Amino acid sequence: MSDDLLSAPDDRFDLEVTPAPEPVRVEGALSQVPAPDAAELRRLSDNAGSWVARVATLPPQSLEFKKEVDAIYEVGADAFRETSSTSSRFLEQSLATSRSGGAQQEVSRSLVDLRNEVDELAPGEDTFAERLLGALPLASRVRRYFRRYESNQGQLNAILLALGKGQDLLRKDNAALNVERRSLWGNLGTLRRAYELLTGIDDALVERIERERAAGNAELAASLERDALFAVRQRRQDVQTQAAVTIQAYLSMGIIQQNNDQLVRGVERAKTTTVTALRTAVIVAQSLENQKLVLDQIDAVNRTTDAMIDRTSKLLQENSLRTQQQAVSSGVSPETLRRAYDAVFSTLDGIDRFREQANESFAKTIDVLSEQLERARDYAERMNRDGEGASPEPGE
Fold it and tell me: Which of the four pLDDT bands, split at 50, 70 and 90, describes residue 394?
């Protein structure tokens, strides 16, 4: 039987290669593969019903019954072998690429070389700085830089040639991967049809087993369930597993193709945009440095002129102010005269205050002395009276 169940009743049908769709998810396996059309599904259902009807008429212990059951394990066998062969070729190619480096690593090395070369040759802020080349004049530094650029031009061209070869290798890899992916996608369609056939056989067997049990044919029902249904469901699981592995290989190849496409575009940008930008930067740097040489000299002259004018104007301003100040000022400073008169007036005011205070002090002293004199007069008069009474009259 083998793949005959997948073919038309009278003749084998031709497999049409399905255009590769968007990348599919591993989850869901065969549900991500387009289902056969309605006519194909009806044909597979008819084949499933015919097989169950034929097996149910065979004695369970007969050789014919065993052959029919064993044929279930061959459903989709061609797709199994082709997908396994494709995966093996893909693995061998990956291992060979990892050992030899492959187009990706060759392109990667060339891109690194290009980047290093561009970094070395691209003029920067300090390319013509004095601290790099000591006391060399600017013109000499510019000439030295461009001599270095010319000497590295051969190496730059060699890198660009290597990048072009890497692009060709990547395109060849993608062409081979595209063939493998189309083959895998066609085999996935075959596996989907095999799964639909096995599903139809499973459903028909379950229905036939129930009918045989209801009719009292317990031995036939048990044989169909134990041998035929077991083989069908085991093969369904195998088909699902093979489909999941095949989809994983299909997706992996797609990712590699996308990466290769990105590398091809990146290499093209490196060959055009990057190199053009480098050459533009060199040309612009040469022009700007020549302009800078002239502008620096103009700036130096302007700075000298500005400084000279500034110094002259400051001297003129200072001398003019001093001349005007000297013309309006007298021999003696008004401030000095003011301080002198203030000192005289302060002295006179002090004398007046002293006299006022002295008059008050004199008045108080006079009052005190007058009071004391009055008191002393009483005592003096009393002492005089006492003295006159005690002394003899003259002539006695």
Answer: very low
